[in-house]
From TrEMBL:
The keyword Transmembrane helix does not apply. It comes from Cirrhinus mrigala (Mrigala). GO terms for molecular function: DNA binding; zinc ion binding. It holds the Pfam family zf-C2H2. Residues 2-29, 30-57, 58-81 form the C2H2-type domain. This is C2H2-type domain-containing protein.
Amino acid sequence: WHGCPYCSKEFKKPSDLVRHIRIHTHEKPYKCKQCFRAFAVKSTLTAHMKIHTGIKAFECQYCMKRFSTSGSMKVHQRLHT
């Protein structure tokens, strides 16, 4: 186990600890080359980049509205239930 030097959380993988420590240090090493917004996690940057492409691959099964991320579609779909 790998312990956080800032709090009592422990992680199995060193990479998870590194990502967690960014919460404390406010480090955001992943920067969008289009709008210069910064992110602590690479996958968040990847999801963000979809805003710039205009591609909306996820469609609401209830109203056919389209979304660039599955997460934003799932939040939207709660309106229908």
